[in-house]
Amino acid sequence: MDDLRTDSTDGARSHARAQVQHASMRIPATPDDVDPGRLTWAESIPAGGYATKVLARGSRLRLIDVAGGACAHLLLYRAEAPWERLNVADTMKVPWQAYLGVGHPLLSDQGRVLATVVADSSGRHDLLCGPEATGRRLLLLGALKHGLDIRDVAPSVSLFRGVRVDPGSGALEFTGSTGPGAAVDLLIHLPVLLIAANAAHPLDPDPPSTALDVLAWRAGEQLADLANQDPEYQRAVHNTEAAWAAAAGERS
């Protein structure tokens, strides 16, 4: 049992400082393929934790399942207009694809691309189920920090825990994790607020047990190099660039 008393200011301060030894303070190492001078964010989210960050247009975001026991649940909001946010239904419907992979856009409810998947060594993701109750609570805590509320916690994207639909029965099949070291990179098209929770998938019997590493760096030049030529994607990119150009006058 904790012997430190908290019924005085000195005792409460000593108790709070003693908790530091239990906190997760690890900072992810800069990947070999990233210029340290371009790095804008590096954080390790423990199992049962969450993080939020406003990311600039042209940021490249990497999420890493370091030890194979993480599950990332993501929400995206347009930073300067948070009523525009990730729409998971359109993210599946518009590109005619329910399974995330390289080239897949994460679309807003206004038909714009908030982010594109540009690298993926996992292949085990889910757009159908969302998180269980703990994950939703963590996403809500992140939303509250930015002036949002429970009405703004929409369906989320889940990474590193896969789900497939059985073509015969239509039943959901849980495909689990790829294993340690899997990573997903997203390229950000518009300034966004990201909320990320490392929490259980509702079909997974084992809750997340290891950290989720998150890094971001400046990579704006890559926005001109995206290879997806599908007409639906190109139309969404056009909508995105038009909105960004129109807002440029307000920023100048």
UniProtKB/TrEMBL annotation:
- What InterPro entries has UniProt attached to this entry? DUF1989
| DUF1989 domain ranges (all copies) | 44-193
Give the span(s) annotated as Disordered: 1-23
Q: Write out the biased-composition intervals (Basic and acidic residues).
A: 1-13
Could you tell me which Pfam families the record lists for this protein? DUF1989
Output the PANTHER family linked to this UniProt entry. Answer: RE64534P (PTHR31527)
- Protein name (database record): DUF1989 domain-containing protein
> What organism does this protein naturally occur in?
Mycolicibacter hiberniae
Taxonomic lineage is:
Bacteria, Bacillati, Actinomycetota, Actinomycetes, Mycobacteriales
